[in-house]
Amino acid sequence: MTETEVTAEREPTGESVCPVCGHEGLTAFWEAKDVPIFCNILCESREEALAVPRAGICLAVCRSCGFICNTKFDSSRIDYDQSYENALEFSPRFREYAERLANRLIETYGVRGKHVIEIACGDGYFLNLLSRLGGNTGVGFDPSYRRTAMGASDQSGVTIIADYYGEKYADQPADLICCRHALEHMANPVGFVQTIRQSIGQDDRTIVFFEVPDTMFIFRDLSVWDIIYEHCCYFTVPSLVTTFHRAGFDVDWCESAYDGQFLTIAARPAIAGVKPFEDSRCSLANVLASVERFAGSCKQKCATWASQFGRIASSGSKALLWGAGSKGITILNTLRESCGERGVDYVVDINERKQAEEEIRSNAERFERWKASNFIGIIQSNARGDIIDANDTLLAMLGYTRQDLVEGNLDWTKLTPPEFLHLDKTAIEEAADKGYWTPFEKEYFHKDDHRVPIIIGGSIFKEDPDEYIVFIIDISDRKQAEASLRQAQKLESIGTLAGGVAHEINNPINGIMNYAQLISDRLDPESPLREFSDEIGQETKRVAKIVRNLLAFSRQEKESHSPARIVDIVDGTVSLVRTIIRRDQIALEVDVPDDLPKIKCRSQQIQQVLMNLLTNARDALNERYPEHDPDKIMTVTVRPFEKEGQPWFRVAVEDHGVGISAEIRDRLFDPFFQVGTGV
Q1: Are 635 and 653 in contact (CB under 8 A)?
Q2: CB 655 within 8 Å of CB 617
Q3: Which one of 58, 138, 346, 667 has the fewest beta carbons within 10 angstroms of its own beta carbon?
């Protein structure tokens, strides 16, 4: 394997126009071959990392504005997604700097209670700082944003969109627009800044703040390790100021920061022409002179480091490289012959995401195996309500599709009925203390709005305490069985009571019937008293029939079906409620043809259903008509019909009462849902 070749060039390039100032002609002064096009992506294996595509770098300078670019940059080869990792906030020193910078912007421009946009916000660390320190709201844009990334600390009032900022978001209002360490990645920096300028319009109160690497630091320190393919632009004060002037901004300040490594600029929309900005600390002449010195010295520095690593390897000592960011990756690639496996034994990085990546992958593989089992419902979620992933069992349980999941339509806080949310809060608090929560019963809303009873348990992910893996069991069958058992026990109790009462009534009824018959037999056929004795006999027979029906209704039937006439079932059931219906001044109309054939059924179950319908119809009529009314009518009809070639009976109970409200009409056939008495 050969070293990345670094050469010094001072020739005009094929790039004839400076993308910042429009000057004709750029002068090449430094070149590197065979460098990786990415330094900040997280690969899943060593083989994948070694296979990252490579390209060349040719730095050229514009002698009119001092802008420097890589003339070999090909933007079509670069795409930023969630594998891109360039977070710096794991460094305590960088966190201190970021907080000082946030406070400076807040105090200088009065950014309190305002709205902030951050472009290329990463995981939102700096945006959240501005929000927390200034009481601001904010929106961030970054295609590499990972909602569940470690270190992401989204807070109330802050939203992050995993997308590139562009014209489609130009209508987003802002009091402060930030963009840190992104402009150097853009092949058309002026065009991008102009997009921001156009979105602001004529409001000169909006402040724009950018931060980029300071190329003068690279020149002073001969920091060739800061030259990477991802950076197609290299800014100095003159070229950065020119970029903002050409985009239509007045510059408030443009200065170095973070010990000279960064270059910051604050600007506001120019309303009446762009005002000039001069900074004697970094003139165009200084930039061009630095270019000349760098071109002649950087190759010597590379050779010195290569020699030093070679000596370490030859002596049997071990070399340790601190930092696996872009600098470390560039050192290893630029000097990979000397710094290869025999030269550098260890690379140390305090970025916790990189350290945890293998564990995250292992957990992800384990989660995929659990999901694939499809034995119970499994989801991956966070405390905010987001369901990040779910298996097919869970989706089928709740009536959703994987497309619903991808589109973000599943939120467990919205799936949960309000009366159960306090249980979820308790579970999350328990998980924060113990790492898991005790399984408990609750309900989820199905996509069609009926409720699904479940048992739910879960635990936190080790790498992200705000993320959970949750196991869910559908207990609808168990709940239905419990409800059926309770109903059976209730009916058994009622039946026992009704049977006892019926037996107690039956004996005196038989006695009355017999005495009425004796009286009738002893009376003269022409006696006027005979009419009364016959009436007593008829009434006692009617009561006896009611008692028989009550005994039949209360009797515990076997599972077997037996032939029965539907007219007898209806008449028997109606006889039990006819008196109370008449007392409530309800007109009862029964229309059952007498010639209907027998059916094989469980008569008692049909009676129970019919009794429920009659009772609910009575309640509905009484609610609408407390007193007598011509429309206070209840109708029972039986009609034969044919379905799929088979004969059926339809038994209907109709009333003109209050009806069923629209909000619960769709839930009539939900298990365990009660609509009125008995249903």
Answers
A1: yes
A2: yes
A3: 346
Q: Which DSSP helix (H) or strand (E) runs through 468?
A: strand 464-474
Can you say whether residue 110 is alpha, beta or left, with left for phi > 0 and alpha for psi between -120 and 50 degrees?
left
For position 152, what pLDDT does the model report?
43
Q: Which residues of 25-35 are buried (b: 16+ CB within 10 A; e: fewer)?
A: ebbbbbbbbbb
Distance separating alpha carbons of residues 632 and 618, to the nearest angstrom: 9
Q: Looking at residue 77, what DSSP letter applies?
A: G
Residue 45, sorted as left (phi over 0), alpha (psi -120 to 50) or beta, turns out to be: beta
Q: Residue 413 CB: number of other CB atoms within 10 A?
A: 14
- CA angle (101, 107, 108) in 5-degree steps: 85
User: Residue type for 429, please?
Assistant: E
Residue 537: name the closest of 551, 523, 552 by CA: 523
Q: Residue 36: beta bridge partners?
A: 54
Q: How far is the C-alpha of 232 from the C-alpha of 68, rounded, in Å?
A: 8
Q: Which residues contact 549 (CB under 8 A, 6 or more apart)?
A: 572, 573, 575, 576
Tokens at 184, concatenated = 């150097």
Q: What are the tens digits of pLDDT across the range 513-529?
A: 777 777 877 888 788 78
Residue 12 neighbours by CB distance under 10 Å: 12
pLDDT for res 99: 94
Query: What does the CA dihedral 609, 610, 612, 614 come to, rounded to 10 degrees?
Result: 170
| CA distance linking residue 346 with residue 329, whole number of Å | 13
Burial of 137 (0-12, 13-18, 19+ CB in 10 A): middle
Task: List, as one string, the DSSP characters of 146-214.
Answer: -TT-TT----TTEEEESS---GGGTT---SEEEEES-GGG-S-HHHHHHHHHHHHTT-TT-EEEEEEEB
Residue 371 has what pLDDT? 62
Say which residues have a Cβ less than 8 Å from residue 500's Cβ, sequence separation at least 6: none
Contacts of 554 (CB under 8 A, 6+ apart): 494, 495, 496, 497, 498, 499, 502
Helix H or strand E encompassing 607: helix 603-624
Quote the pLDDT of residue 249. 96
Calculate the alpha carbon distances from 330 to 40, 306, 318, 334 in Å: 10, 13, 20, 6
- Chain CA centroid to CA 517, Å: 80
| Torsion 523-525-531-535 (CA) sign | positive
Residue 585 CA: distances (Å) to CA of 415, 482, 540, 575, 676: 46, 38, 24, 16, 20
Q: Point out the residues of the chain with pLDDT beneath 50.
A: 1-14, 148-154, 338, 672, 677-679
Cα separation, 67 vs 288, in Å, equals: 10
State pLDDT tens for residues 56-102. Answer: 889 999 999 999 999 999 888 877 665 555 566 667 888 899 999 99
Residues 6+ apart with CB under 8 A from 69: 15, 19, 26, 59, 60, 232, 233, 234
The first and second tokens of residue 250, run together, are: 């007045």
Q: Distance (Å, rounded) from C-alpha 331 to C-alpha 308?
A: 13
The contacts of residue 102 (CB under 8 Å, 6+ apart) are 126, 129, 130, 133, 134
State both tokens at 668: 């009539």
> Is the full-model pTM beyond 0.85?
no
Burial category of 449 from C-beta neighbours within 10 Å (exposed 0-12, middle 13-18, buried 19 and up): exposed
Rounded to whole angstroms, how far apart are CA atoms 210 and 186?
Answer: 13
What is the Cα–Cα distance from 62 to 239, expressed in whole angstroms? 9
Distance CA 322, CA 320 (A): 6
Give the number of residues written for the chain.
Answer: 679
H or E element, residue 484: helix 476-522
